[in-house]
Amino acid sequence: MHPMMNMGIRAVRAAGDFIVRCMDQMQGLSVTEKSRNDFVSEVDRRAEQIIIENLRNAYPDHAILAEESGASGNSDYQWIIDPLDGTTNFLHGFPQFAVSVALAHKGILDQGIVYDPLRQELFTASRGDGAHLDGRRIRVTRLNTLEGALIGTGFPFRTLDRLNAYVDIFRQLTAVTAGIRRPGAASLDLAYVASGRIDGFWEYGLEPWDIAAGTLLIREAGGYVSDINDASPEVKSGNIVAGNPAVHDLLQELIRATDGAT
Fold first, then answer.
1. Packing angle between helix 208-220 and helix 186-194, nearest 10 degrees?
2. Does the pTM of the predicted model rise above 0.85?
3. What DSSP letter does each residue of 202-237 carry, written as one string?
4. 3-state class of 3 per DSSP?
5. d(CA 9, CA 11)
6. pLDDT, averaged across the chain
7. Which residues make Cβ contacts (< 8 Å) with residue 223, sequence separation at least 6?
């Protein structure tokens, strides 16, 4: 295993252990609303500190891009950190949240980790070395149609400007797929695509820390990730579509045809 992967795993496990311990202290947590329906708690901030401290101790010169503290450092290596993906779920005691950490080298994703601290499931990917769940190789599904597909998504919660488009897309996909799931933690949704638990995923308005690790997981598991707007592998707009190769293309085609404003 790559030494930087080992250090990343150590960091996410430490943060995950802290998050789980805090579940018994919900009533006393300090919570701030960053924007409409976008919350941050002291748990998010402390979990992020734990991750950064672990990484800085090992790699003091590496750059950081973290959800709560932003960007720091100047290096060919950059760690991309979401300390608690699914904060709203966590605050309600809904058991679907994760820690997500990725490492990019010269702008190219090199290592990716998504850790579910409640189930203690560890999804990992190293560029060119495949994707794994708890050390076992994982692959995307082989389904080549939307019929029978299980699709993940994240509905709008910060702004409602795309709500009508979402409803239209939801309606069309409901008519042709086996179902749509919205668990509320994008990093885990992408990990589930990589491990074959769902066939595809789409969402608008995500941030780099939401998708970096999951993107590498899917690609190393044989799937496709791109911007909804085009075939670009860089999701600069934050509007993402992912899946096994066939489902990715069919899902992207349906979304773009339904929402001409993408």
1. 0
2. yes
3. EESS--HHHHHHHHHHHHHTT-EEEETTSS-SS-TT
4. helix
5. 5
6. 92
7. 140, 193, 194, 242, 243, 244, 245, 248
